[in-house]
Amino acid sequence: MVTITKLPTYCYQCVCGPDLLKVVVKDGVPVGVEPNFDFADKHPAGGRVCVKAYGLVQKMYNPRRVKQPMVRGNKRKGLGEEPRWTPVSWEEALDLVADKLLDIRRKGLVDGAGYPRLAVTLGGAGTPQAYFGTLNAFFAAWGPIDFSLGSGQGVKCYHTEHLFGEYWHRAFIVAHDTPYTRLVISFGHNDNAAGGVTGVWRNAEARAAGMKWVQVEPHLSVTGATADEWVPIKPKTDAAFLYAMLHTVLHELGWEKVCDIDFLKNRTNSPYLIGPNGYYLRDPSTHKPLLWDAASGSAKTFDDKTIHNPALYGEFTVRKAVEIGPDKEVIEHSDVAGKTAFTKLVEHMKSCTPEWAGPICDVNPSTIRRLAKEFVDNAMVGATVTIDGVKMPLRPVAILLGKTVTNGWGAYQAVWARTVLQSLVGAIEVPGSILGVTIRLNRPMFDRLESVRIGEDGFMAQSLNPTDSERWEAVPRVRNAYKTLSPLVLDSSWSQALGPAHLPWLFMKHAPENWPAPTPPDVWMIYRTNPLISSWDPDLVAECLKDFPFIAAFAYTHDETNWFADVLLPDNVDLESYQLYRVGGTSYQEQFWEYTGVAIRQPVAQPPYNTMDLTDIATELADRTGLLREYNEAINNGVLGFRLKTPLYDYSLDPERKYRSYDIWDRLCKAATMSLSNGRHEYGLEWFRKNGAYLIPFKRINWYLHPIIVAKKLRYELPYQEKVMRVGQELGRRLHEHKITWWDKQLEEYKAMPEWDDSPKIFEDLPKVYGKKPEDYPFWLVTSRSMQYSWGANVSIPVIADISKHVMGHDAVMMNEEVGRRLGLKTGDEVFIESPIGRVRGRVLLRKGVRPDTVVALQQFGHWVTPVPKNIDAPNMNRLVPITLETTDGTGSGADLVKVRVEKVRR
Ligand code: SF4
């Protein structure tokens, strides 16, 4: 008789999870995947998963996997150097890695240049933590590790939004409050591809209920294709469009009539008075910012309880005040005139008319004007809604930004303008508006609301990296120097990856003046990442890797980066190992739950190959490097999400003992359930293997910051960036004191109110850096996300390749139909795409839905080693994008954008 069981597990192959599923196991063999409808009423997508989860069984049985540990036979490394892999036992492989690590411990954890000798690069925007078992505990036990060698992170994410979103409203990712939103204006935000199963589900429901979606982007993405309207904007001009929307609201529609005046006066820095040097005017004794109380006709500190009517607009004379400049310099004033920050904003936007922006963006000014009006009309200023018994403003409009818009030059302007627009109508962190979904830079990482603490000047506390002369980190302690160059990236466990993570590759080969050149790490570990595909300028990365003395790669298949490795460690994949992971609450992109808790990932059958549970690998490495005690203590102390010992319970590990994966996760399951239930439930691993997840209610009101902002009497630091300006000036002083001037252009970005700076020109002029003519590169090459392939090694799964064939653009470069014909091209023709640094080859697909000046290459192909994708005939734009300081902005990010020419391949 056939036995069928259905084992619950989670998928977190992309950051839009975790989502819950069941694996169908027939007579001990997994044969399929289905939704987990046990959680249909709790999971925001009704217990469903997206198409990628349906490839998990193939992922497990993929015959092209690395099937046992392997060591390199060829001591030389290079693109043309065959590694000559030799299979070894796990004992041999782990001993080899442990020997190299012990060598480091003998020499000292940090090298002569001050950089950690051990470096680790992870891929997939945080998804690795849902798979790497207890590896985090090993890292915690180790000591200093360099996580800053990039594989695309920090530059191919929503970088400026991550930094400023979290700064302004604890929004590492910004999402719309889909169930309430009436209008979304999306600047390249590719929600259908990037929103996960919950995003697609929630948006489909909202669209059916009448939500309007306007997509502003150079090509018609899979999100644009389902939008109500497509506005084909010229690449990288989004900030000009948004500035013109600001102009329309402030100067044409009449801010007095359409803005949320109460919100601006009481929840933003709009009424703060700005002095002649651009800093807040402050009370001379308390140094608190001043505003003007129109009721009493006098200046008062922002928190003065006697203020009746803060003036929003105007210039006022203050008898005595001070400004505080960089390095706490106090500038004293008598009878000084101060304009409100809002007045400054209105003046700042005066010249940014739709007629000004229209030619920049190649969009009819009437479209910009109309969308600005639709935005304020749909904001419903004055409307309220009751959530969990609390009356809240309802502001159902959201402007969303996509990658490239939020990355590189021009991103600060775009992110600032978007958030200011939202603030004008009070549409931040209230129902229907833009919401932050998670935090990654502030703490505690799993409680966004808790991270809102009272800080200086009426705003939430910010723990920027110091720029004062005593505490500024003059000598970088990791290779991307995030604390030295990027104050806004903070110093959490994610900050290294969000610094300028592409710069180590550049600086290893071309160190700038007066800078400690990054050294190759003694040991580089890589997990779920392939920088030779996902980073720009792979040839530069390859040059660097040749000098890396020892690379340990956790390997699923052979790939372009582990081609350079010394040892391949094939760890168990998604359906082969244990892990307990947090689910629910709010997380990106649209994981808004009314429950929170934990879910299990579990083996659904015996692994088919000689692979190993990563928890067991981590335990072995800890044991062999003499770190078992520290490793077990890290687990006891909660590095896996829950402490193993509290006054309620004690499941702690004996620090001197080695535990198997099952034992560790069993204890975690018990600790998590005891902790979440406040001692009422103790469920171990066996319970989770049957039930899948343990959830407790999470109130919907917790989706919004508004109640806590009001309760703590805080304001959003908008529209005026006084602190950012001051921090930039301090950073400039520090760098100049050390004779570093190559970051000067980046320092210009630290503006209280950024101007439109013609950022497209930076990309248009790039050919000149290489002695080439800009006019020879007439097309913008942009990229778009493949929902089917992104992350999770899905590019190696045949069933995903089959599915992807049905989605346009997966095997071709997309180009405007008319323009292609003029070039003598037809769909299917082979073309060269050439930038100033390289040339790739691919087939062209002619479409109407692409601007005439734009070509589109979906991310990220161009493999030459990885089985399966090496047969996909699609190019990788990364080969055409240089890593340069010229294209790196002040936050340390760049954009997936390069000017190219396109030519037919002639035989
Ligand atoms: S959206 Fe992401 S996490 Fe969810 S099922 Fe799909 S791949 Fe997995």
From TrEMBL:
GO molecular function (one): molybdopterin cofactor binding
Listed SUPFAM superfamilies: ADC-like, Formate dehydrogenase/DMSO reductase, domains 1-3
Keyword Transmembrane helix among UniProt keywords: no
PROSITE patterns, A to Z: 4FE4S_MOW_BIS_MGD (PS51669)
Biological source species: Caldiarchaeum subterraneum
Origin: domain of life: Archaea
Protein name: Molybdopterin oxidoreductase
Keywords associated with the record: 4Fe-4S, Iron, Iron-sulfur, Metal-binding, Molybdenum, Oxidoreductase, Signal
Family that this chain belongs to: Belongs to the prokaryotic molybdopterin-containing oxidoreductase family.
Family annotation (InterPro entries): Asp_de-COase-like_dom_sf, MoPterin_dinucl-bd_dom, Mopterin_OxRdtase, Mopterin_OxRdtase_4Fe-4S_dom, Prok_Mopterin_Oxidored
Gene3D superfamilies for the chain: 2.40.40.20, 3.40.50.740, ADC-like domains, Dimethylsulfoxide Reductase, domain 2
Span of domain 4Fe-4S Mo/W bis-MGD-type: 4-64
